[in-house]
Design goal:
This protein has 14 helices and 5 strands. It has about 350 residues and is mainly alpha-helical.
Length: about 350
């Protein structure tokens, strides 16, 4: 509960936790609010309430002009400040905020070929391999894969239930049948680990949306445990309790980078590349674009449409004029297009 005379940043954190924001969003918003306060040199809370729209506009313009941040970064800063004013300071922003907007170049997502996916996955091992296989086989974001709970896997219907994905929405996506044996073995390891934690007086996992108060015993139940738990227990930064959280993203990212270097693939590959590849390969195989939109959890179809760039081979589906040359002419050319000399 928010207390009178609470410091601004403490009130921001308390308000975010009351509204069930994730720890990652909390840290991001707090960072932006601190930067905003430092930028203007505020000393008192009242300073934030004088011509608020102009203050926000100046900060966002600074980010675009001097910071040269991406559009998404500027939007994140804006969201943090809107939260600060509306939820914490209880002030509606009624005036116009006409900041210089950061430009965003249209980027084509990096996509691996099926052969490249197979080679990369073969060079990853352990839990990181199974996670990478889910990123490609189910189109998950890495955060969604790591937050999977035992109860979210439905072997009977061959599907995964993604809880509170981007936009706090649940969705269903296919579970690759080929991974059934590996996943059951993984869940068996989770069961053994959880049983050992319980014997040592631990075993309670973090539950979202204050479910631990509504269902006091749910946190120690096996079905609520993470599918990919961390090797070590750690202290929860919010509650202070010692718990076993899920595996860190860095474990998967490092494994993918190591495999890419070993294969010498000249593409900027990240964990998210497997999600891009999932969507593109489904589209190439004839899956309806709206079905892919639902599987990815995109709110706007325009976001999904970006994957149509790979359906037609060649840029914009255009065949290079060099490929149209008569074969006999082509035989007379070397790879640079210069006539061969004897």
């Amino acid at each position: 509960m928010v207390k009178p005379n609470m410091k601004l940043m403490d009130e921001v954190r308390t308000t975010m936790r009351l509204k069930h924001y994730s720890i990652h969003t909390e840290r991001s918003y707090c960072d932006w609010i601190r930067r905003y306060v430092r930028f203007h040199g505020f000393k008192h809370r009242e300073d934030l309430l004088q011509d608020s729209e102009a203050l926000i506009e100046a900060f966002l313009t600074h980010l675009a002009v001097n910071g040269q941040v991406a559009k998404s970064t500027q939007n994140q800063a804006m969201n943090a400040l809107v939260f600060l004013y509306r939820r914490v300071l209880k002030r509606e922003l009624t005036g116009e905020i006409d900041a210089i907007r950061a430009t965003r170049n249209k980027k084509v997502p990096v996509v691996l070929t099926p052969q490249e996916v197979q080679k990369v996955l073969s060079l990853i091992s352990g839990s990181a391999q199974l996670i990478a296989q889910l990123l490609y086989g189910s189109g998950l974001r890495i955060s969604e894969a790591l937050r999977l709970r035992v109860k979210d896997i439905d072997f009977g219907y061959q599907q995964l239930i993604v809880r509170s994905g981007k936009g706090e929405k649940d969705r269903v996506t296919p579970f690759p049948v080929v991974l059934e044996m590996a996943m059951k073995q993984q869940l068996q390891r989770v069961k053994v680990l959880h049983d050992n934690d319980l014997k040592e007086g631990f075993g309670e996992v973090y539950l979202p949306y204050a479910l631990d108060r509504k269902y006091p015993q749910a946190g120690v139940q096996y079905v609520w445990q993470y599918v990919f738990p961390s090797e070590n227990r750690s202290r929860d930064p919010r509650s202070g309790k010692i718990r076993r959280h899920h595996l860190d993203q860095s474990v998967v990212n490092k494994s993918i980078k190591r495999a890419i270097r070993q294969l010498g693939i000249a593409k900027q590959v990240t964990a998210h590349t497997f999600r891009h590849s999932f969507a593109t390969h489904l589209l190439q195989s004839g899956t309806d674009i709206r079905t892919i939109q639902a599987l990815l959890g995109h709110q706007d179809l325009k976001t999904t449409m970006i994957y149509t760039h790979v359906i037609n081979h060649g840029g914009m589906g255009v065949t290079s004029p060099l490929d149209r040359l008569d074969r006999t002419v082509g035989d007379e050319l070397n790879t640079t297009g210069i006539p061969r000399t004897n």
